[in-house]
Structures are given as C-alpha cells and as structure tokens.
Amino acid sequence: MKITMLLLCLAALIIPATAQHFKQVTGFTGVMQMVAAGHSEVWGINTSGQVFRLIGSKFASVPGSLSRIYVGGGTLLQKDEIWGVDESGNVFHFNYGTKSFTHVAGSLQQIAVGEGDIDSCHPYEVWGIDFSDQVFRYNYCTNKFDQAPGSFVQVATAGGAVWGVNVAQQLYAFNFSTGQFQYSTLNGYLSLAADNNDCWALGPNGNIFAAGAFNGGYSASHITGTIIQLAAGDDGVWGIDPNQRILRFDPAVGSFVDAPGFFTQIAVGSGAGVWGVAPNSGDVFTFVRP
Q1: Which domains, from first to last, does the chain contain?
Q2: 155: which residues sit within 8 A by CB, 6+ positions away?
Q3: pLDDT tens-digit series, residues 101-115
C-alpha cells in the first residue's frame, strides 16, 4: 500500500529526537501572523500585513500588504511561486525580476500552490477559491484564473495532484484527463494538507486521516492523534493540538508524537523545512535537523 511504503521510507530518515530542536529566526518587525514555506523559499506576514522574505538566515521586508501568503511548486529546475491575497480578496503574484508583487485579476479568499507537470500552460498548479466557494485554476498562458467545475471550502495541491473538500465534507480529486473533480467516496473531512504522496485531512474533533488513490480507487487510513491545524510537505507532516502543542508524525510508530514547543501556526515546506509562529510573541522558529 502506498502509505505503508511512504512510512517505511520516512522511518529510515529519522534522526534521534535529542539532536532535533527549533531555532529562532529574526529580521522582521512586529508580531508575525503566519509563515509559508516551499522548496527553497520562506515568507511571512505580520499582524499589520507587512510582508517578509527569508534572505539567508534572517527575514527582510518586501513591499506590499497581504493577509495570507502561499509558497510552493519549486523543484531543482524551477523556483517556488509566491502568491498572496489581501483582506478584500485582491490577488497578488510575486515577480522575481522586480522583487515586488503584481496585482492579478480576480477575487479569492484562499490559494493553493504546487508543482505542475501537465502542460506548458500549467508549469505550476495554482488553485483558488473565491468567497462563493467557486474554484479557479491559474493559466500561465493567458495570465488569468480560469473557473473550474466544483464548489469547495478548501483545495490542496502537491506532487501534481489536486484535492478539494466541499461544504458537505466530501473529498474530491481532480482528474486531469476529464478536467473534472472526481468524488473519492471519502467524507467527513473539514480541512486538507497535501504532500507528494498523499492528501492528509482533518475530520471532526481533530481526527486525522491520510487518503490517497490506490488501484483505481481511493482509501483513507485513520492516524492516531488530535490536531486543530495540519501541515504537510516533503519535509514531513506536522500539526498543532488544541493546547497549541507541536506534534510531528512519526512514521516509525504510525502516529503523531510531541515535539518541543508551542505554536499558533505551522508551515511545512518541500525542502525549505518546518516553520512555526509562537503564541503571544509572534516569534518565528525553524526546525533544525543536525
């Protein structure tokens, strides 16, 4: 089974817990509200909407004002994409050439960014949901968001796969051949996170599931633990419990285990590491594996 194979591979990479710790990272002003990480890029937004980019070992200010920021899709061959939205739903895309954000037509409440490998017009999978739960996919040939079929409260993308969950808590997977979202027959999910192998989902009462496609169908495995926020990427699967404790998925035991510290928000990259925001202070920390 795909999930089992993933657990075995991750288990081989485990480093003794005593050698792992979170290290504080500075360079920003104010109280950090959220961080986002991709293959090599790490970004953050403070509670005033100011935007920061990790340069070297410190954050540096970038012009712009956002309420949410999204990072991902980077590989050894292409840079991460950086997208953001403000409180009004205006959409912005970071331009590496000008080192500034460019306004993009559309109004979205959330965006998901991942690697794309389907066609030249989608070198990245960039999906968005508007305030009516309508779904959109960004087209790099036309430089605009095209509406896609479906109505979701959240989308997640990684490894070229795209997942969505609707208001009825049903899980869907996008079928690139038909251009339609396909109902997975799995339900009871409230929010999603994805890595290159599976879609990780939260159900009621913080129940955790790992779902994926197997032999032409879909299945999900219940994972022990209680989490209110979930983050996944090539750098692992992490979460925050109701008491703001940090939890890390341990493939050796097949469940989440305690990690040192407390966070209000956590981000997991696909090469850029694991990042979190501490309660009250808004200090930012990154996970260090010696």
Answers
A1: 2-288 (2.130.10.30)
A2: 110, 112, 127, 128, 129, 135, 162, 163, 164, 192
A3: 999 999 999 999 999
